[in-house]
Structures
1.
Amino acid sequence: MKTLRYFVTTALIIGFTLTGSSVMAGHGAKSGPPKAIIPGGETVNISGLILDSHKEPIDEAEIVISVNDREVDRVTTAHNGKYVSRFQLKKGEIQKSFIKVKASKTSFASQSLEVKGAELAQKGDHFFISEDLTLPRVLGPAFWISTVVFILAYVLIAFELLHRTVAAMLGGALMLVISYTIGTINPEYHVVSFDSAINSIDMNVIFLLMGMMIIVGVLKHTGVFQWCAYISYKLARGKVFVLAVYLMIFTAISSAFLDNVTTMLLLTGVAIEIAVSLSINPLHLLIPLVLASNIGGTATLIGDPPNIMIGSYAGLTFMDFVIALALVCLVCMVVLVIFTKLVWGRGYAAAKVQNVQEYIQVLKAEYPITDPRLLTYGLAVLGFAVFLFLSHGYWHMEVSVAALMGAAALLTIAILTEKVNLIELIEKDIEWPTLMFFIFLFILVGAVESSGLLALIADWILDLSAGNFVMACSLIIWVAAIMSAFVDNIPFTATMLPIVAYLSSVIPGSENTLWWALALGACFGGNGTIIGASANVVTMGIAESRGYRISFLGFMKTAFPYMIITILVAHAWLLIFRPQ
């Protein structure tokens, strides 16, 4: 109960914070204190956008308005970079005045412009003008602080020196503390504001993951996943390689419509039991399954966390992912089947398969459907949720809404029929550390984006690619693949999102293809090493707890060559077909 109260309290704090920041954001630009009303005076309205060198809006930039070198107003830009200033001058004063607009923000060079009052548009006693300003980046103290903290957090996550959730929380909290202590004394050290940190959290990703965790948590009580493993063995009729192919297909399909980490959590134990009964090394079955899980998860918007993040950031629909990526994933699954035969074929051939029919009956008795009624309800709700996933572009609805609706409906049914213990499901089936990791990771990435690190990387890639689509696509997919093999693909994808968005906007003919390059590189690259994807870590961790350990190099020796092959296939696919 203490654990539950802790997480509920955390959720409430986050909810109230988001609500408060949303209300503030909804009012647009923030203005200074109320101005004195001048009887019979003339009202001046000045508005515009503050942009960076990539033409992206700059929020929380300070705008100072001066008339004849006398400050008359001070406002702050909204999240969309817009500012609005309204003040009054004495009758006739505006015509002979010079108005100066100065914009400044930490990590940017201040810029100003000056206009003559006589140039303003006039309607009665109201004067109007709209002026935009572009602020160039500067690599000041805030940039170096955010970069160092971000790299240190990355090292802690990559080498598992701290739990990734704690590492991300530590990095995010440190940036905020520095901003509100040293940054208060000297604004050059202000990395990120609390409002900006909260606004950087993508709640579409958080709620989608939470909803799918609840749905799978309820379905787990029906025994359907273990039953599917039994059916796979029954169809294979003792042929171990055929069994491996069936399990890989089932894993890939499940990972396309469920989270691939959850899929492997449910299947790993069953696969180990089947492998032990056949007297083969369980790792010879588990490694192909986890590779299939990462390939299958690449095919859809909801199959792998990087895709969820890309879809939410770029506004891509479920069907966009299916149309662009499903076929290349199918090709890579065929490659996986061949690869599995070449690498583990001898191990499968050495399996001791005795009295197949009797073992099928044993599996049938051990892995039945434990609750057919709940399974019927669950599949109906899951089917409805998948329908909403497929059509959410038509409804202009975020995919998280579909996942939350499905989770709420299935949870209601399970509780009313007393099939599921609510407290147990909330505490055990919702992976709170994963959700918290995402929250703090978004804050970390939002901070380095605000201070200019990502813009610097984007400029470097753009300069290296010279605005050439082929070079940009090649850089993105291969850098994403190699980085994701050695660093968890979730933080890397979060880092690359604004970079790819910028490159897509400035390179002619790229459209959505660069997004697919990032998705394929991040997801396929996760197959390279044991720490490349969360599904790898989970699967090998369970295997190790059962006494079947594989080293970092041992996993890499078999998985990395397959990763290289799939990236070559994906790279050729992108350059030849350029899916949009």
Note: Residues 531 and 537 are 6 Å apart (CA to CA).
2.
Amino acid sequence: MTNREAMLEKLADLDAEHAKAVAGGGEKYVARHHDRGKLMPRERIELLVDEGSAFLELSPLAGWGSDFTVGASVVTGIGVVEGVECMITANDPSVKGGASNPWTVKKIFRASQIAEENGLPSISLVESGGADLPTQKEIFIPGGKLFRDITRASARKEPTIALVFGNSTAGGAYVPGMSDYTVMVRDQAKVFLGGPPLVKMATGEESDDESLGGAEMHARTSGLADYLAEDELDAIRIGRRIVARLNWKKAVAPPTSYAEPDEDPDGLLDLIPTDLKEPFDPREVIRRICDGVSDTNGVVFDEFKPLYGPSLVTGWARLHGRPIGILANAQGVLFSQEAQKAAQFVQLANQTDTPLLFLHNTTGYMVGKEYEQGGIIKHGAMMINAISNSTVPHLSVIMGASYGAGNYGMNGRAFDPRFLFTWPSAKSAVMGPAQLAGVLEIVAQQSAEAKGQTFDAEGFQGVKDIVEAQIEEQSMPYFLSGMLYDDGVIDPRDTRTVLGICLSVIETKAYEGTDRFGVFRA
């Protein structure tokens, strides 16, 4: 099977997994929702964003592999509304009435983090019955952060807007309650801390939905609703008008022009080997995602230190007209030279306020007596020190392997890149499955010998097989994406577009590099 055929097969699988998220609670519940004259979350988003603009959906596979519906009953992403890039969150009422489960909370936390780091206005499309009660122990305590984030965004002058299409009950009532602007749909929106049954149990009071928390009551009596919409389309229209009146300005002016790549991005499907142990040249990736020569005086990529530390490619380029610094793994292993080169390059990027793009394909830092004596630990620490303390925006794409401390050094999830995406070919773990199983076998053998026992290699083979299969499964992109260790698994051919959107979003808020790093060990 060719590289292209293998990647197309992976992309077909990816489409099938994304389809599960789009399907929500399934045909029965989607049809029931439509029969009530209501739209599904992605339909609402499509009407909300500017016509012809892209919507960058985030974490669509959240909860994959868990007991919960793929997508975690909420849609999050970045869309352009009246020319303004906004973080959009939309409950999916076809999944248990839009109730929040543990993965919902984590997914919204991530969306809030992205909005805060990049200074984005937030729009919540609300229709949720509150917490998924059987899992309340995993939601109640951490879930309070959702409301804290809304109020802190307002304090930072990052507008928060709630469009309420249906139930917004219990803790969910605080979303419209804490937002700067609240729109409610007549005869549909119902916002209350406790519904009629709970009120009856708590106080003995008889009440109905409308008098207790209906849209018209909140517009006329409580004052919670700033706008009363006649229907869903009217609510979306009002939401767009609110954004249009924000007088919103980005900190960085966008570029006026850029050149398309000189190499067709479709060729990315041919580059990634089916066996990740087989190296590939990341310069070929760079040629297919970065601006072409007509916009860079004849040079797509100005490589930095090309003869030193050759298994890490570093250099400068432009992407959609925006300057970036790139660190890309070439041969998998990071040696001392590569680590020192990376630390210097990160310092230079901070000196010139240039965002950094990390393209992962690494098995980690080199091990062995020669390399330990040569200082691989302190040099790896130098690289991680530079990346940890760098203050320019970081973007990461895991193309292939991202194992061990190499994941850290290349700015993995733990190091808070602004955005991190993976390709379907990606794998990430403490080490490769075969290596990890082999290490366990060696440890077991040494333990047996220390006890004076005979090691049963044949009997241990079954354990190795189980461990290897488990690590292989947990290294796969769907599993990692389900855990929210990335912001989405993407088609390699979409990488340029996705990164272009991210770089534009980053420009909403001013940033600058630093000259303050931790101690570099000599």
Note: The chain has 20 helices and 17 strands.
3.
Amino acid sequence: MSDQKVKLQEVASSSQIGGHLLVECLIAQGVTHAFGVPGESYLAALDGFHKYQDQIQFVTCRQEGGAAFMADAQGRLTGRPGVCFVTRGPGATNASIGVHTAFQDSTPMVLFVGDVATETRDREAFQEVDFCSFFGPSTKGMAKRVERIDDAKRIPEYVARAFATAMNGRPGPVVLVLPEDMLTHEVSSRPLPKLEPVQAWSDPGSLRELREMLLQAQRPFVIAGGGGWTPQSAQALQRFAENWQLPVGNAFRFQDTFDNFHPLYAGDVGIGINPKLAQRIKDSDLIIAIGPRLGEMTTSGYTLLEVPKPKQKLVHIHASAEELNRVYHADLAICASMNAAARSLEVLTAPHSVPWADWAAQANADYLANTQPQTLAGLPADSAQGLVNMPEVISVLQRHLPADAVLTNGAGNFASWVHRYYKHHGISKGFKTQLAPTVGAMGYGVPAGIAAAVLTGRVVFTIAGDGDFLMNGQELATAAQHGAKTIVVLLNNGMYGTIRMHQERDFPTHNMGSHLNNPNFANLAKAYGYEGVRISKTEEFEPALTEALARNQGTLIEIMLDPEAITTRVTLSAITQNALKTK
């Protein structure tokens, strides 16, 4: 047999269908888990997961929104793109909430969407959607990039570009559209090597300028957060703060960026911010923002820092040049990834003493005081809670959860309890411990917790509201199927609490649409394969939690909460204040 015929046979034997190549490319990028809901539009890719099931696991979810949230959680935990597979039309539109969350939260993610066959395209075929228009890559869109793979030979190119785009600069989601016929074509292409995110270093001149600004400051303050943090960069941030004795606040729902137990920690800069912390930021003469976009929630509706030119001097460090000076005109803008930025900052030579040492110490004292239950008119602020004291519940969590436990939540008034009273050891200790949507998406906590359990094997705790839980509670079935144990604490007050709180403030004599007629959540959890427990007293929580920690299966603890316990993070809500006035 001639050499040419041998080579032709080798090529033929190495060929495979596009769906199999696609999964092989994911493995080459280090992906160990993909989350999704199966669809007939990408059967060839599903067959690829079967072929390579000893190297990558396809986690079958119950709804595409839950699957996309799991992929978002995967991206946050690993620093590499989370992977989600959905089918065309309804599948993709369901998944869009996860894409939007990943975009606003700066999470690397790749969504793969099965699509109509090439020959039926542009006829409004069954479930056809123009995904480039729908996901619309832009500063106001849902994805950093949207592409369609029409040629199976180019699958490695598109996958590699998607991973690079998702990780580099400001992390975010990428959408790849997969025509179903393309996935069945035979190809001999091979995966490209694993990509690592590019590190953007700050220039030496900017660092010298930053040092001079610090030396001239009297009341500096650091706000840390955003995506792209690793244990190494978080540790470097801590050394920078220690060298210069800088008070540090964590941006909204990035509360694990800086160790909450550190004497320089000043609290989280987000919804329901400690009024003393808010005033401290306003009184600062130098704000150093490392990583966050400085969005609406972190800036209290753009009031802590005025737009476009803050009264304070502003140093803004961000991985994306497009983000810098987009909303706030900074006195010094530095484009750098978090690893590079923090490692540059930690070697800035600090003076032997700084004039703001007392300022930093008082910032920490204010934070610690705010973690204690407040009082109003001589009454404990939490006395209107009926038989359940939520600050004590969170105190029990703090005592029993291990330092590396992952805490997740969706959106709602209920999350304020954890945000205010629970202390995160932080990424600097080697692990990410908070998964929460800065975009304010309800239904995030349950699927994010399940993803964390699947990926890490660590203790996972989720706090949910009754309205929040019912948006993705069906994913408990996913947890049971894949052996993922989580502990869910569900606060049942029979309402959309945040909306009711705003109604009581703005329309105190009316409420509409916020009441909920709920199922027995403990029994519902049992139907999904979890243990279900219902409690109504504070003292019942600790034994329920310790039993849940010892149990091999997941547990849902339903807490029957008095509707009057709707609270902001600092003061009683309008509904509770009105109730007190009439008593």
Note: DSSP finds 21 helices and 22 strands in the chain.
